[in-house]
Structure formats: structure tokens, C-alpha cells
Design brief:
alpha+beta, SH3 type barrels, 2 domains, two-stranded antiparallel sheet, 4 helices
């Protein structure tokens, strides 16, 4: 394999990953009625409320007017006119990170393997495949995607102030959304 064809294969692989990510990306729902079809009971969600606070919990129910969550403080019922964004934390299999790491490691290992012309010197290729798979597994296990599934239609630029106090400190919190 010539260096030019090696670069072409690497470029094609990178372009394939980027195109696949763009194809599978979906626009978030923008109407409360559509939110009922996107969320499922027991989905773990992160909800941004109009006052700038976040609520984390599991979906109990979604209607045309309210989103009901099970949180650490009990059940919270949020009117949908106060909900600005909803993100869902879904399970992500780690095998896809291993596959991406394998492919990346193989491409990285092909370069020194191509220029190293001895039969016993394929260890760099095998080593880079193993390291790539390990890094892919680690990155995929640590990162958890939280795709945006709902954005309120009037959720343009917002700015909110709030005062938070506890026993040790008082803080003025500024939330800016754009």
C-alpha cells in the first residue's frame, strides 16, 4: 500500500464517520405534543427550566401540559410552559467505542508497519490496534451522551438571576441562555 493510498483510506474513513454522524443527528422537538412521542417513562432526563435551574430525574408521565419527574426530592410536576430544554441520558453500548478505537489504532499502526519491512516488526501494528481499542473503550465508557430532545419554541436568548444561600455561603447566580 503506497503512502498516497494510505492517506486516501484514512480520509475516506474519517469522512464516513462524519457523514454518518450528520445523517443520524435529529432536530429536537419544538412542540409539547411532540415531546410525548420522544420521551418514554423511566427515561433519565435533565430539564432546563425557565428560571435557569436544572432538574434531574426519571420521567413518570408526559402530557400536553406537564412533565412529571421522579427526583431525589420526590415527584416534581413541571408545567411545560416553564420547560425550556430536555436532554435524555440513554445507555450507550461500549462496543462502538472499541470498534472506533480498533479502526483508529489500525490506521495509526499501518504507517510505521508500511515503512518497516521486516516480518517480525508487525508488533507496532498489533500494539497500536490494542492501544486504540483500549482508548476507545475508556473514552466510550466515561462519556455519556445527553442529546437534546426538546427545545421550547420561544427559548431564544434568556437571562436570569437567582440568589442561592446555604449555611456556608450566599451566591448570586447568573444564567444566560442563547
Amino acid at each position: 500500500m503506497t503512502p498516497r493510498s494510505l492517506i486516501a483510506v484514512g480520509t475516506l474513513a474519517a469522512a464516513s464517520v462524519l457523514v454518518a454522524a450528520a445523517v443520524f443527528a435529529q432536530a429536537p422537538a419544538s412542540s409539547p405534543s411532540r415531546l410525548q412521542h420522544v420521551l418514554k417513562v423511566d427515561d433519565t432526563v435533565i430539564v432546563l427550566v425557565a428560571d435557569g435551574n436544572q432538574r434531574r430525574g426519571m420521567v413518570r408521565d408526559v402530557t400536553d401540559t406537564v412533565l412529571s419527574l421522579r427526583t431525589s426530592r420526590g415527584t416534581e410536576v413541571l408545567p411545560l410552559e416553564r420547560v425550556r430544554e430536555v436532554r435524555v441520558r440513554r445507555a450507550d453500548p461500549v462496543w462502538n467505542g472499541v470498534v472506533i478505537g480498533l479502526a483508529t489504532g489500525a490506521l495509526a499502526g499501518l504507517v510505521p508497519d508500511y515503512y518497516d519491512d521486516c516480518a517480525e516488526c508487525h508488533d507496532s501494528l498489533y500494539g497500536s490496534i490494542a492501544v486504540g481499542a483500549g482508548i476507545g473503550l475508556l473514552v466510550d465508557a466515561v462519556t455519556r451522551p445527553t442529546p437534546l430532545v426538546y427545545r421550547a419554541p420561544d427559548a431564544g436568548s434568556t437571562m436570569a438571576f437567582r440568589l442561592e444561600t446555604n449555611r456556608r455561603r450566599t451566591a448570586l447566580v447568573l444564567s444566560i441562555g442563547f
